[in-house]
């Protein structure tokens, strides 16, 4: 009897303790449009604790009982305050009202999650508003070119949109659009990225201290989330610029239930050049280039606990040359036309299901299909007309490569209390690689010809778990584990990757952070120039060529003073399993297996990064400085000795500022400085062995001797960009004019260097530059 009583009492006490725990949950969105406010902050002044909204705007905050004094806030929005005493689990969906320019007094109130309180390091969010306001090459706003201005990120070459993060290559960046990897994010041979800023809700760059939920790349994560569409009314915006125009329309299909967003962008370089080329060739020739992007998304709210999303992106680049003519020989007339060109592009689709399992457990299921393909083609059509009839010959040849993915993943977030934020999940990707195939066919040959590697199928899978937890009021850590595997051609690679990030809060405005991560990458990018050209080939790890692996450790400090964020970080990274073409090998060696054309090596990178940033107020922007050193080593290159990576830069400075000096006018500037890229130039020359000339005679060719790989530096790179915008509200909406100047003081920065001779026969280095001073304008509108 006594034991039964004690058991009953224990049950009652446990029930009472459980009853005292109350969870407040819901979503945080923008008033009017219904867009998720990713990373919005919830702060309880009573308990001095809070929560953060995830990438779908969902939050969960658990208390022991009693009253709460909640502040819901996000940068650029008015803070909302709620005071009440919840008796049971409570659902509260909050809408925040956008604020034009935050008053200086408001800034000191509870804002979005403070940078010094976040556990992870080496992570930066750039507001979309800042991205749109900064000067842009030819007036084309580009997310990647703004990310290049951040410490630890290099652009590669003049004007390019590639990202080289902490000594890594472009293939080592995990670029996600609504959770789907993007394999080629470049337009116009690398000068623009595929992301239309008008269709984007959030951009986050992670350079180190990677959370366990990310995997598959070594150097960075660029997590880009599309807008979801206005739930209340139809809205739109667009712009007309020098080389491209774009338009975005969003609105409800059914108010408060289903919304859509459609966004399109296209260049018209081909349309502008067409009449000029045709006039010069008497209508016989047509040369052109264009690219386009299409984004679409549907967001459907099933009920308060279930939501469905379907998003699609497609975009292509095409460069072509068409020529037609005829000739007459005796009684024969031959008409012929030829087209040569290249085309490349992405297709990405994702279906997502968000499910609130209960107030503390959130799930997201994603099913995706994506494709990247490059085509180099030549088609010749000849028709000969004689008295006896017509004879036709059609010949075509094509080189193509690409990668297709089918993927499924499940992600869960469990928030038992404010001291723990647990994430776990799994992912599987079915890859199909086409690593370079040449095909030709003709009406005059019996069999079609096909050369090159056959398609390769691989399976990549992963599991992860992490917990972001408070050890004490000042000490917080994120501890996680990421397991991944790769099954390819009978070989199964496995990788267990521990991840650790910790933060110690020195005081309310200052913290010290540290991180240690290991990463694995099972796919490689074969590249000749490193410009993000479409000829770059994606290939999998094989039994002969293993995966890439990396280890990175970092230490940093962060301070927040009156809206200014200051950070300093040092890092050290090692990389193994890197590949690059051997000397003389290219993607055009179609009769060779790509595995025989590459060398395998290692790399290391270390540096110091300083950043001062302000995201709000009339004057916003950042000043960044990077000191770094990056080296590579391959047994079959540079005599097996370490050499500087091509995009190694010892010093890098970037200043990006926007000043909204009136309610309808703003001025922005960007100034960058960087140590020149490393290049290989010969140090000696001598005569080679005597050789016979074609047609008789002999000669001794010049042989150039390279002391080492990347043994010289280009001159330093620097430029200044300016932009001025003014806008006016009309009855139908808003119109905006933007004038910009790229490279204001006409600095002729090196694009590449070459050796030549002067008039006296002396050897000299010639610098080739790409962009002089370039003015631009655009007309934007909103309705």
UniProtKB/TrEMBL annotation:
Q: Which domain of life is it from?
A: Bacteria
Q: State where the protein is found.
A: Cell outer membrane
According to the entry, every stretch annotated as the TonB-dependent receptor plug domain falls at 139-217
Membrane-related topology note: Multi-pass membrane protein
Pfam families in alphabetical order = CarbopepD_reg_2, Plug, TonB_dep_Rec_b-barrel
Query: In the UniProt record, does the keyword Membrane occur?
Result: yes
Coarse class of the protein's main subcellular location: membrane
Which UniProt keywords are present, listed alphabetically?
A: Cell outer membrane, Membrane, Receptor, Signal, TonB box, Transmembrane, Transmembrane beta strand, Transport
The record, for PANTHER family, names: HEMOGLOBIN AND HEMOGLOBIN-HAPTOGLOBIN-BINDING PROTEIN 1-RELATED, TONB-DEPENDENT OUTER MEMBRANE RECEPTOR
Q: Which family does it belong to?
A: Belongs to the TonB-dependent receptor family.
- Identification of the protein by name: TonB-dependent receptor domain-containing protein
Name the source organism. Answer: Belliella marina
């Amino acid at each position: 009897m006594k034991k039964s009583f004690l058991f009953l009492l224990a049950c009652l006490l446990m029930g009472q303790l459980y009853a005292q725990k109350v969870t407040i949950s819901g979503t945080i969105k923008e008033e009017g449009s219904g867009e998720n406010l990713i990373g919005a902050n919830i702060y309880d002044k009573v308990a001095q604790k809070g929560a953060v909204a995830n990438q779908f705007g969902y939050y969960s905050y658990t208390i022991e009982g009693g009253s709460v004094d909640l502040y819901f806030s996000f940068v650029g929005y008015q803070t909302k305050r709620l005071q009440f005493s919840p008796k049971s689990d409570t659902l509260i969906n909050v809408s925040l009202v956008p604020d034009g320019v935050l008053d200086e007094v408001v800034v000191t109130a509870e804002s979005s999650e403070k940078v010094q309180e976040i556990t992870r390091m080496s992570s930066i969010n750039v507001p979309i508003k800042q991205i749109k306001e900064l000067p842009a090459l030819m007036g084309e706003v580009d997310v990647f070119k703004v990310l290049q201005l951040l410490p630890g990120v290099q652009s590669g070459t003049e004007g390019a949109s590639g990202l080289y993060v902490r000594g890594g290559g472009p293939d080592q960046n995990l670029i996600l659009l609504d959770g789907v990897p993007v394999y080629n994010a470049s337009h116009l041979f690398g000068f623009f990225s595929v992301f239309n800023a008008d269709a984007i809700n959030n951009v986050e760059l992670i350079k180190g201290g990677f959370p366990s939920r990310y995997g598959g790349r070594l150097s960075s994560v660029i997590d880009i989330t599309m807008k979801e569409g206005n739930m209340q009314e139809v809205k739109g915006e667009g712009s007309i610029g020098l080389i491209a125009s774009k338009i975005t329309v969003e609105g409800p299909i059914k108010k408060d239930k289903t919304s859509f967003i459609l966004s399109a962008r296209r260049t018209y370089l081909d349309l502008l050049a067409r009449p000029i080329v045709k006039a010069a060739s008497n209508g016989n020739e047509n040369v052109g280039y264009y690219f386009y992007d299409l984004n679409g998304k549907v967001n459907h709210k099933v009920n308060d606990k279930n939501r469905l999303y379907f998003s699609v992106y497609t975009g292509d680049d095409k460069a072509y040359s068409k020529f037609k003519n005829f000739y007459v020989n005796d009684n024969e007339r031959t008409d012929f036309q030829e087209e040569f060109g290249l085309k490349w592009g992405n297709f990405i689709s994702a279906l997502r299901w968000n499910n609130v399992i209960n107030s503390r457990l959130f799930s997201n299921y994603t099913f995706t299909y994506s494709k990247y393909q490059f085509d180099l083609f030549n088609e010749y059509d000849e028709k000969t007309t004689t008295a006896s009839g017509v004879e036709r010959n059609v010949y075509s040849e094509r080189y193509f490569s690409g990668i297709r993915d089918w993927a499924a993943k499940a992600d869960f977030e469990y928030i038992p209390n404010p001291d723990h934020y647990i994430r776990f999940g799994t992912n599987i990707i079915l890859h199909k690689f086409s690593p370079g195939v040449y095909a030709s066919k003709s009406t005059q040959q019996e069999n079609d010809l096909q050369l090159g590697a056959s398609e390769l199928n691989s399976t990549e899978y992963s599991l992860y778990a992490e917990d972001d937890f408070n050890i004490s009021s000042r000490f917080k850590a994120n501890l996680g584990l990421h397991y991944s595997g790769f099954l390819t051609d009978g070989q199964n690679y496995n990788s267990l990757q521990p991840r650790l990030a910790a933060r110690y809060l020195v005081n309310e405005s200052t913290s010290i952070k540290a991180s240690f991560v290991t990463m694995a990458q099972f796919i490689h990018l074969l590249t000749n120039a490193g410009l993000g050209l479409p000829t770059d080939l994606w290939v999998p790890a094989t039994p002969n060529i293993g995966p890439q692996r990396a280890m990175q450790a970092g230490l940093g400090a962060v301070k927040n003073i009156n809206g200014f964020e200051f950070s300093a970080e040092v890092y050290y990274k090692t990389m193994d399993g890197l590949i690059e073409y051997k000397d003389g090998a290219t993607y055009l060696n179609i009769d060779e297996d790509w595995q025989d054309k590459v060398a395998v090596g290692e790399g290391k990178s270390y540096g110091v990064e300083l950043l001062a940033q302000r995201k709000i107020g009339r004057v916003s922007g950042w000043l960044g400085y990077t000191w770094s050193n990056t080296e590579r080593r391959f047994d079959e290159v540079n005599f097996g000795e370490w050499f500087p990576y091509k995009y190694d830069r010892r010093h890098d400075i970037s200043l990006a500022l926007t000043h909204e000096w009136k309610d309808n006018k703003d001025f922005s500037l960007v100034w960058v400085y960087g140590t020149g890229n490393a290049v290989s130039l010969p140090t000696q020359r001598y005569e080679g062995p005597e050789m016979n000339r074609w047609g008789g005679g002999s000669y001794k060719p010049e042989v150039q001797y390279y002391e080492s790989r990347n043994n010289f530096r280009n001159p330093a790179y620097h430029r200044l960009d300016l932009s001025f915008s003014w806008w006016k509200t009309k009855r139908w909406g808003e119109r905006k004019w933007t004038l910009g100047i790229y490279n204001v003081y006409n600095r002729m920065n090196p694009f590449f260097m070459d050796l030549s001779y002067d008039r006296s026969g002396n050897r000299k280095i010639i610098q080739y530059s790409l962009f002089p001073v370039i003015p631009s304008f655009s007309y934007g509108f909103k309705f």
